[in-house]
Amino acid sequence: MEIKLEALFQDKIDQEIKIEPRDWMPEKYRKTLLRQISQHAHSEIVGMLPEGNWITRAPNLRRKVALLAKVQDEAGHGLYLYSAAETLGMSRDEMFEELHSGKAKYSSIFNYPTLTWADMGAIGWLVDGAAIMNQVPLCRTSYGPYARAMVRVCKEESFHQRQGYEIMLTLSKGTEAQKALAQDALNRWWWPSIMMFGPNDDNSPNSAQSMKWKIKRFSNDELRQKFVDVTVAQTEILGLSIPDKDLKWNEERGHYDFGVIDWEEFFQVVAGNGPCNKQRLKARVDAWENGAWVREAATAYAEKRELRTKNQTEAA
Ligand code: FAQ
Predict the structure, then answer these.
(1) For residue range 206-224, what is the model confidence (pLDDT) as tens digits?
(2) What is the pTM of this model?
(3) From CA 214, how far away is CA 82, in angstroms rounded?
(4) Is residue 127 in contact with ligand 1, taking CB distance under 6 Å?
(5) Closest Cα to atom 28, ligand 1: which residue?
(6) How large is the greatest C-alpha to C-alpha distance in the chain, in angstroms?
């Protein structure tokens, strides 16, 4: 019976029919999606912290308003994604518990510090740029609620990418000191940004099955390559240089070759030993604990309203 259901399930995937919450699905498909979507949601929420650091110090009102709006968008993305993950049978509180206990991951990139205003440019340009490269194919992922959430997320991310690039453009066309800030941000964010795509394909345990189920449409290395290819030209327009001496156009492959990624650093960051892991997690746990009274008050208010409505209905 199970085998027949699995064959029917795979057949639907092969025909590009979306899988919906009430459809039969293999347990491993459900678990893989829960892992990926909840990790993605946590990334959006933790991803607010490095930029939140600069809202009060943005150089002018226009920059402040745009940054504030961007960080709010990220909160919204987290909420759509938690909702999509909830359709797979895990409550939001359970997902938070997994984040706070360190069981669930979030993207490695958000464990790096934001040291200067130029980092707001580099994050928008590179981090949102890498996120879009990964997420546009997710608009066609096989699970309906995830695919639909991604459509709006991608529209907003593409605006964020331009917002970041415009900051980089302004700095790089500014004074020598401003240009140096932009270059310094690129130097620090380049390698962590290309790590975001995950381990190389030959070291990516989840890829084969996720590609078969069309959760992923491109491999980690394919997306990383596309990102490097488009980013080189954007860097040239800025008049900056990518900190990789091995970066070179390969005529035969029709792609840029690039240097070896420091995977030791990546796995250390993923294991919780990056520059800001402890700080990021503490900020989330503190927010959860300090918000307990708000959740209690909201629940008490909802219960009171429900009781009042019930009494009114009975009296009528
Ligand atoms: N960081 O077998 P694979 C954003 C883990 S959103 C940490 O290749 P998979 C928006 C992976 O979980 C950024 N861990 O795994 C924004 C697995 O461990 P597990 C987030 C990573 O799932 C912008 C193990 O390594 N985007 O930036 C990372 O097939 C600006 C083996 O890896 C998404 O989450 C990593 N970078 O492929 C917000 C997109 N990479 O769980 C604020 C959706 C890998 O088995 C400001 N996710 N790992 O213990 C995906 O597309 C996939 O999950 C991948 C990883 C591609 C990230």
Answers:
(1) 999 999 999 999 999 999 9
(2) 0.95
(3) 20
(4) yes
(5) 198
(6) 81
